[in-house]
Amino acid sequence: MLQILTPEGELVGDPPIDVPMTRRLYRAMVGARLYDRKATAIQKQGRLATYAPFEGQEAAQVGSAAVLRPDDWMVATYRDAAAMWMQGYPWELLLAGRTGHERGGSPPDYVNVLPPSITVGAHMLHAVGLAWAERLQGNDRIAVTYFGEGATSEGDFHEAMNFAAVHRTGTVFLCQNNQYAISTGLNAQMATDTIAQKAGAYGVPGVRLDGNDLFAVYWAMKNAVDRARGSNGPTLIEAVTYRIGPHTTSDDPTRYRTNEEVDDWRSRDPLERVRRYLELNGAWDEEWQKHIEGEESAVVERAVELAEGLNTPDADELFDSMFAEPTSDLESQRRLLESEGG
Amino acid sequence: MAVLTLAQAITDALDIALDNDERVLLMGEDVGKAGGVFRLSNGLYEKYGPDRVIDAPVAESGIIGTAFGMAVAGMRPVTEIQFMGFSYPAYDQIVSHVGRIRSRSRHRFTSPMVIRMPYGGGIGASEHHSESTESIYAHTPGVKVVVPSTPYDAKGMLLQAIDDPDPVIFLEPIRLYRSVKEEIPVGAYLVPLGLARVLVPGDDVTIITYGAMTAEARKAVAILKQEGVSPELIDLRSIVPFDVDTVVESVEKTGRAVVVHEAHRTAGFGAEVVAQIQERALFSLSAPVQRVTGWDMIVPLKRAEHHYVPTAERIVAAVGKTLEE
Description:
The structure holds two protein chains of two kinds. By secondary structure, chain A is α/β, with parallel strands linked by helices. Chain A folds into two domains: 19-311, Rossmann fold (3-Layer(aba) Sandwich); 314-342, no CATH class. Chain A is built from 13 helices and seven strands. In chain B, the strands form three sheets. A seven-stranded mixed beta sheet of chain B has the order 3-2-4-5-7-6-12, with helices on both faces. In chain B, strand 2 (24-28), helix 2 (44-48) and strand 3 form a beta-alpha-beta unit. Chain B is globular. The chains are: A alpha/beta, B alpha/beta. Chains A and B meet through helix 5, helix 6 and helix 13 of A and helix 3, helix 4 and helix 5 of B.
């Protein structure tokens, strides 16, 4: 398993990015964790629908998304808010969806990130089609799809890997193997030792790495993105990581895993090892930590205000959103709702 | 003008769309080198090449899922599912994504794509090859479902479907592929989606159908006319959207109606037609509306299929019931 930065913050390989860039990505991971904790907190107050926390997976998401060009496509899941935010999807819209507002699915025009996939697996195929279409149109935009290890049990994982391989689409498959699909652990999910090895069955390179290591993630993603942009086909990356929190705020993880196991993974925290590395390089102190936490916290607080401040959609917005022009069926249903006092 | 079969009219439309619009591509199993299982894309692979007429791996979810991604990124994919009975592995993509992305993203992302499916029985095919399960798709928000029955409509509606800013499921009646032909214009023309067409005007009873059943209904009309009955025959052409106005206008005139489809009876689209007739025109009716449909059973294989697929005789009998009142 590829590792460049140990949990102690020591290098065991060449860092793929310099110290200023490492500081920027560290700050992004800090911001993502603040968002994640804030979202979890306000969900407990009943202000969000079920929330799926990503704590522990910040390096896998931030380190991979940091490699992308701003116009690249991203198709991710409900647990990939940090990656989506890195690619330009605003926190307030990610929160808006969780407050129960469809406008959360509508990122700004310059952001090529699809709204998060809630069902598991089907979205991987979309990243194949997106990258394929870009190549057909003469563009070198690539597409990355994020998914968990559980999604590799879905048939669409197989179909997506195969389509991408046969047609050499510029797609990066980024699997965050966070050990659990809700309660189902790896042993009940698959009989292979790794996910990366599945790539071989499709004629695609597979890379397995320490997903809590920002440098390893960045390095592998850089290679995969370069390969994709160079029309050399897809790559499967297995970022081995851990979901510190529950599957969602409705889940009780004590039913299927031990506190010792969680504590062991906490000791491999993706933020702490970068912090130690920066400190060793004289690029971190407590004052800066407080400064970035303050600023990132303010951004998250503002996002909560914006999300909660969105007007409740009226019925017209619903009828008008199904097609470019509402069908005659929808128009008569709209009149019916009005006549019934809705 | 040229005399074309319904199958040739579809090939013609595909050729025109590929020629006129670089965003259009065809994707499906065996649509390239083989020209499609029904040969409807014959010659197009040679003319437009493997990037635009794509032989896909055997994976229906993969075809629809990747085509969806292509559509979101600006292409206009026209996909072919070999038979409607093979579409179910792709249903998740259709119901979970194709029909939802516009709403989910509040118009930020759209998936303008056509999903072509040869459908229907009457040709004595293997199991899964004779399905008529359009109600499943009519019950799926966010997709249009259209069914041409003539070469003219097939060409004009397919070109319109490819131009449509939203996903369209385009059902092709296998039975009519080569059994109907007519003179149609050379070059591009459009037939709007969502409008029914009165095939035969009449005064005594309204027969409402679509797709392959228009052929049996036409036979029934001929028999009824000999018996001195004047039926009005309506081809819906589209079930989503459903042109209820044309149906209601006719029923208000005739006071009687028979709905015909080869799909299973329970929750078939005929149930929707009947429901909307009674909502809008109950007091114009002189008799209960009748349905002539397939049954709630697996479409039988060749030797017993005649028990299942509606016939002109059954339609005539149903019309007779409405006239008894």
